[in-house]
Design brief:
Blueprint: H1 4-19, E1 22-30, H2 32-48, H3 53-73, E2 89-97, E3 103-110, H4 113-127, H5 131-143, H6 156-163, E4 169-172, E5 183-189
Antiparallel strand pairs: 1-2, 2-3, 3-5, 4-5
């Protein structure tokens, strides 16, 4: 028997997603195989929508970098925090089309306070850099050794900042209970 309660209970979520032109949304645990599957779906969806090649490339690379950052830095994990491969970490990622045809990429994940502090300082510095300075920092980072404690090459945020059409926006949920980790939000306009 069909129940109208399903539509009443969940219909608002689907209508909101449609209203905001969400073309991709995932919340849950991220792993390398999950990112690969999501990336394939996003790539195909952008091709079918006839999104211009340079925009597709930027969206795709930013999407992958944001998802990788969730795997590397999310504080909620199904695997031990010290595990460096086959990690399963919790977060969300969203791609939405704007009315002018541009795109917004958004991601969110809980982070430890020391990671939040590090992200804040890196992102505040990135927000005041020119595109040329971001590109120069990107090239320099490729030549340098990976930063101590970094789980990647240290180019993820630089890649997203380089490909965004305006400065990255970010925020943290205020921690209101002892022992609770802040949630990091990142927005890139492509």
């Amino acid at each position: 028997m069909l129940s109208p309660l399903i539509a009443e209970k969940y219909g608002s979520f689907f209508n909101l997603a449609r209203q905001h032109q969400v073309i991709f949304y995932y919340v849950g645990y991220f792993s390398q195989p999950i990112i690969a599957a999501m990336a394939e779906a996003v790539k195909l969806q952008l091709e079918v929508a006839d999104v211009a090649g340079p925009t597709r490339r930027k969206l795709f690379s930013c999407f992958v970098e944001m998802a990788q950052n969730i795997i590397h830095y999310s504080a909620v994990s199904l695997t031990p925090q010290k595990q460096d491969n086959n990690e399963l970490r919790h977060g969300s990622v969203c791609i939405r089309r704007e009315s002018d045809g541009s795109f917004l990429l958004l991601c969110a994940n809980p982070v430890e306070q020391d990671v939040a502090n590090d992200l804040r300082s890196k992102l505040e510095a990135l927000r005041v850099m020119t595109l040329d300075e971001i590109k120069q920092a990107y090239r320099q980072t490729l030549r340098d050794e990976a930063p101590l404690g970094s789980k990647g090459a240290g180019i993820g945020l630089l890649t997203v900042a380089r490909d965004a059409r305006e400065p990255l926006e970010f925020d943290f949920d205020v921690v209101d209970r002892v022992g609770q980790t802040p949630v990091f939000y990142l927005k890139a306009a492509i």
